[in-house]
DNA sequence: ACAATAAAAGACAAAAACATCCTTATTTAA
DNA sequence: TTAAATAAGGATGTTTTTGTCTTTTATTGT
């Protein structure tokens, strides 16, 4: 519905990495994928993208892995989503018209634009850290056993 | 974002057909596609699906085409969407967990479930006819010139 | 230095979504 | 009763998304 598989895996992985960010050791791709039930190599690609976009940090070599800086932990979800789905995703027309505009709106525009706004608010108002905390406190999960 | 191309074309086509339902003549696929700027054959397939699901009516042969009964005009959008995207689409987990549940929620569950509810409301509260009327009164459009 | 480790990168494969084309079935007007 | 029109159906093709496998590059502990 809202997110592509790529985006789902990306968010889940980032949240897992964030949830491990108290520890000093970095988190390897293997461990990440086990804990979020995502395909190993595909997820690695996604993390590459996020790393290039400076939403994650990584280190190669022995004892390497992924980790997040304090700054990265404070990023709102919307930054992650836009990095993966593209900046435009939250301004396109819901019925697929070439542009979403008030001047020539589609028949769903009013209601859709309002919901799209809710989505934006949700994604802007939740940081990766917020989500990680809900994991750490056992209030939320990244896979179902 | 919300809808697949298939769904977008399906909705646009249905709304166009609805907007022509005052006339006695039925509406051909050619005319439909011109007016919604959608691919001819692909859209035809989608209309087949909607017709099989009794959300549209059709007639073959000379002067045939698509049309909608009074009852069909009153269907809320959600019926269209579920016919195309599948019934489950509005109850799946936003982060792709196997199930969306209150018991083992994903970290986005609370906010996502609420938005998903808004979407359901929007789609339940708008009939195809409603959208067609906004077209007919020039308040909305199905393509941008 | 060297071997081991782990991410990055690139090539490839499978599945799904999107799209076209051709044939068939049905209807109607002439 | 026949020809034209029009949707339905089936086969096929293309593109995008999703996923795997292999090689390369960087880092580090020994
Ligand atoms: S024009 Fe369709 S959502 Fe704005
Ligand atoms: S569990 Fe993820 S949206 Fe409900």
From TrEMBL, chains A, B:
GO terms for cellular component: cytosol. GO terms for molecular function: DNA-binding transcription factor activity. It holds the Pfam family Rrf2. PANTHER family: HTH-TYPE TRANSCRIPTIONAL REGULATOR YWGB-RELATED, WINGED HELIX-TURN-HELIX TRANSCRIPTIONAL REGULATOR, RRF2 FAMILY. This is Rrf2 family transcriptional regulator. It comes from Pinibacter aurantiacus. The lineage of its organism: Bacteria, Pseudomonadati, Bacteroidota, Chitinophagia, Chitinophagales.
């Amino acid at each position: 519905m809202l997110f592509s598989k790529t985006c789902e895996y990306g968010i889940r992985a980032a949240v897992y990495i964030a949830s491990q960010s108290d520890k000093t050791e970095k988190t390897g791709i293997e461990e990440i994928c086990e804990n979020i039930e995502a395909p190993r190599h595909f997820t690695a690609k996604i993390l590459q993208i996020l790393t290039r976009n400076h939403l994650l940090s990584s280190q190669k070599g022995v004892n390497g892995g992924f980790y997040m800086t304090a700054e990265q932990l404070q990023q709102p979800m919307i930054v992650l989503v836009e990095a993966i789905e593209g900046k435009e995703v939250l301004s396109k027309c819901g019925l697929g018209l070439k542009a979403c505009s008030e001047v020539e709106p589609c028949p769903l525009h009013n209601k859709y634009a309002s919901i799209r706004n809710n989505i934006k608010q949700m994604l802007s108002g939740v940081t990766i850290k917020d989500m990680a905390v809900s994991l750490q406190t056992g209030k939320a999960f990244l896979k179902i056993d």
